[in-house]
Amino acid sequence: MSWLDEFGERHGAVVGVLASSLAQVERRFSEQIESDLESVRELCARVERYRGKMLRPSLTMLVGMAANGDEPPRDEHVTLGAVVEMIHVATLVHDDVLDEAEVRRQRPTISKLRGNEAAVILGDYLISSAFHLCSSLNDQRVAMRIGEITTRVCEGELLQLHHRQDRDLDEETYFEIIERKTASLIGVACEQGAAFSGASLELQRAMYDFGVRIGVAFQIQDDLLDLLGVERVVGKSLGKDLEKGKLTLPLIHHLAVADAGRRRESLNLLAGLWRGEIAAESDGRPDGPTVVAELTDVRHEVRLALETTGSIAYAAQTAQRAVSEAKERLQTLPPGDARLLLEDLADAVLSRDR
Amino acid sequence: MSWLDEFGERHGAVVGVLASSLAQVERRFSEQIESDLESVRELCARVERYRGKMLRPSLTMLVGMAANGDEPPRDEHVTLGAVVEMIHVATLVHDDVLDEAEVRRQRPTISKLRGNEAAVILGDYLISSAFHLCSSLNDQRVAMRIGEITTRVCEGELLQLHHRQDRDLDEETYFEIIERKTASLIGVACEQGAAFSGASLELQRAMYDFGVRIGVAFQIQDDLLDLLGVERVVGKSLGKDLEKGKLTLPLIHHLAVADAGRRRESLNLLAGLWRGEIAAESDGRPDGPTVVAELTDVRHEVRLALETTGSIAYAAQTAQRAVSEAKERLQTLPPGDARLLLEDLADAVLSRDR
Q: What is the pLDDT of residues A91-110, one digit of tens each?
C-alpha cells in the first residue's frame, strides 16, 4: 500500500501491523468473490483493480487497535474491513454506470469495458457477497448496522438524483446527501471497528461521528478534485459532477453569495451544459444539439467564477473544519500509536490530490 | 390476491390462512422500505405495484405449513417471505434496466419512468433493505443461505450476459443459467420455509429441490410467453429475449435439430435482429441502421420456424417434466391441506398466461 509509505517514518510499528492486516483484508476479499464460473472470475479480476487506498478497512483496523491498547486487529476486524471495502467497491461500480464514467483508478471502468449490464450485475454480485461475508461473523449487531447503513447510502444517492440540475440546492440538503451516500459507510467502518474491540456504546458512537466527519471532508475534497484536479493524476473521469448536474459545495456557495449578474452568468453556463450543448470531448457527431464548448472549457470558466466569490476557499475551510471536529472525537480513544496515526490520516484526507 | 380465488373452492381453509399471511408479508414489505425521505417514498410507492402473484412468499408459507401439520405460518415465515419477495422485486427492477423494458405488470417500468439511474439505485435500496430485514431474524443459517443464493442469482445473470447472442448456447448451459438466476431463489424460499418449521435437513433439501424444479418450469413458461404471449395479457414487454440475444429453450432446441437450410434461415433472422435492423416499434428515426422489419414480425417468423421442429412442444414437455419432478419431492412432506395446495400450485405454473 504505497500511501502507507509516507506514514512509515513517524509510525513504524503501527504501519507494519496495519499493512499486514490490509493484506489479509485483500485475501479475504478475493476469496469471498471467487466463483466457479470462468466468466464471473474474469470480471472479478477486473474489479479487484478498483481497490485503491483502502481507506475504510484502514480506519476499521486502526480504530480497532486504538480501542484495544494498540493490540493487532482481530480476525473479525479483517472480515469487517473486507465487507466494508466490498460495499464501497460495489457503489463505485454502480456509480460509474450512473455517471457514464470512462476512467477509474487510471483504467477503463467496467461499464465502459463490458457494458452497463455487466456493471449493474457485478455491483449486485459484490453487494450480495458482502452480506454473505458479513453473515459469517454471526453477529446480529453488525449485520443490522451494515444493512441499515447500506440502505442509508442508497437513500443519499436517490436524494442526490432527485436534486440533479437543481439550481436551488441548499447547503443543508447537500450535507444530508453526502452524509448519507459517503460518510455513513465510513462512520460504520469506524464504529464497528471499535465494537469488535469491546468498546463501550459511547465510544462506538464517537467513532461513528469521527468517521462521518472524515467522510464529509473526504467528499468535499472529492468534489474539489472534480473541479480542480488533473485527470491524469486523479485517475478518474473529472468534471462529472458539473456534467451530471450534481451541485457541490463550492458551486452552492457561489450561487448563494454571487451578485445577480454573476449568478445569472454562472447559471447560463450550467444551463448550456445541461442542455447538452457542451460535449465531454469533441466527438464530431453530426446529430444531437450543436456543441458550442467542451467540458474542459466549462470547468475552467466555472473555476474562474468560483474564485470571484471565494467559494473554493470556503469549501476547503469547511472540509478543514470537518477534519478538526473528527480529530476532537479521536480524543475519546485511549492515547497510543494507532490513535496518533488516525490523527495524521485525518489530515491526509485534505492534502490528497487523487 | 386474485390468483388465490381459483383455488378457494378446493382449498378453503388453507387458502384463507395463506391470504392473511400474504397480507402480513405485504405490510412487512412496506414497513421495511419506508423512508424518512419524500423522494424515496415516492419511488417505493411505485415499486410496490411490481408485486404480482407473490409466488415466492406463497411457497414459503405453504411449505412452512405443510412441514408443521398445517399449522399457520410463524412470524419468521412472514419475515422470510417479505425478504425473498423484496430480493425478487429488486431483480425485476434491475432486469428492466438490463432489458430496456418499458412495461411491467401492465405499467411503465421504473427505468422507463424515472431513468436507469433511479432504477439501479432503487434496486440497491431494495437489496439492502432485504438483507436488513433478514438480519432481524437473528439466524445465521438463513442469513448465510440468502447471501449465498443472491450471489448465485447474480452469477446466473452474468453467465446469461456472457452468452448473449451466442448461437451455439447448449441446453446444459441454459439450465445452468436458469437454475442460478431464477430457480435458486424459489428453492431457498421453500427450503427455509421448511427450516422455520423445524424440518429435518433432509426435508429442507427436498424442499430446495422442489422449489428449483418449480423455478425451472416457471422460467421455461416465461420464455414461452416471451415468444407466444400477448403483451396486453402478460402485462410486460415481450420479445425481449429475442431482441436482447437471450437464446431460450425452444430456440436452442430448434437450432440443434433443424436441418441445415432451416437453421441458416433462422440464424439469418436472428443476425438481422441483433444487427439492429429490426425495431422494437417503428419509431421512424432517420439515423441508425435501416429498419427492415419490426419485432412483432420477427416473433411471428420465429414462432413459425419453431413449429417446424416441434420446439415449442419440446419446451412445454420439459417444463411439464420439471413440474412432475417437483411434485415427487412434495411426497416427502407429511400429507395435509397445505401439501394438496402446493400440488395444485405446481400445476398452475404451466397453465398461467401472464
A: 999 987 766 666 666 667 77
How far is the alpha carbon of A212 from chain B, nearest alpha carbon, in Å? 19
Closest residue to B158, CB basis, from A121, A133, A147: A121
Q: How confident is the model at residue B101 (pLDDT cuts 50, 70, 90)?
A: low
User: Contact at 8 Å (CB) between A148 and B32?
Assistant: no
**Which of A35, A154, A169, A287 would you mutate first to test chain B, the one with the most B CBs within 10 A?**
A154
What φ, ψ does residue B228 adopt, rounded to 5°?
-110, -20
Contact criterion met (CB < 8 Å) for B147 and A128: yes
Q: What 3-state class would DSSP assign to B102?
A: coil
Instruction: Please tell me the distance from the alpha carbon of residue A198 to that of residue A185, in angstroms, as a whole number.
Output: 20
Q: Residue B294's beta-bridge partner residues?
A: B279
pLDDT of residue B104: 65
Looking up cell 471495502 gives A85
Place of cell 412495461: B103
| Portion 14-33 of A in contact with B at CB < 8 A | none
Closest Cα in chain B, distance from residue A100 (Å) = 10
Q: Are A308 and A285 in contact (CB under 8 A)?
A: no
Q: Please state, in angstroms and rounded to a whole number, the distance separating the CA atoms of residues A349 and B3.
A: 57
Among the partner-chain residues B132, B143, B287, the one whose CB lies closest to the CB of A135 is B143
Query: Mean pLDDT across chain B, nearest whole number?
Result: 89
The C-alpha cell at A236 is 478518474
Long-range pairs, A40-44, Cβ under 8 A, ≥24: A40/A125, A40/B155, A40/B158, A40/B159, A43/A110, A43/A114, A43/A118, A43/A122, A43/B158, A44/A122
- Residues of chain B neighbouring A150 (CB-CB closer than 8 A): 124, 128, 131-132
Cell of A212: 462521518
Closest residue to A125, CB basis, from B116, B122, B158: B158
Model ipTM value? 0.91
d(CA A17, CA B299): 62
Residue A286: CB atoms within 10 Å: 5
State yes or no: pLDDT of B279 exceeds 50: yes
Task: Give A269-316 pLDDT, tens digit per residue.
Answer: 999 888 876 655 444 444 544 555 577 788 889 999 999 999 999 999
| φ, ψ of residue B279 in degrees (nearest 5) | -95, 150
pLDDT band at B286 (very low <50, low <70, confident <90, very high): very low
SS3 category, B103: strand
Q: Which residues contact B300 (CB under 8 A, 6 or more apart)?
A: none
Chain A interface test: which of B40, B133, B154, B163 (most A C-beta within 10 Å)? B154
CB contact under 8 A, B131 and A125: no
In three-state secondary structure terms, A294 is strand
Using the Cβ of B157 and the Cβ atoms of chain A, whether some distance falls under 8 Å is answered with: yes
Cell of B88: 425478487
Contact B120/A97, CB-based, under 8 Å?
yes
Whether A141 contacts B136, CB under 8 Å:
no
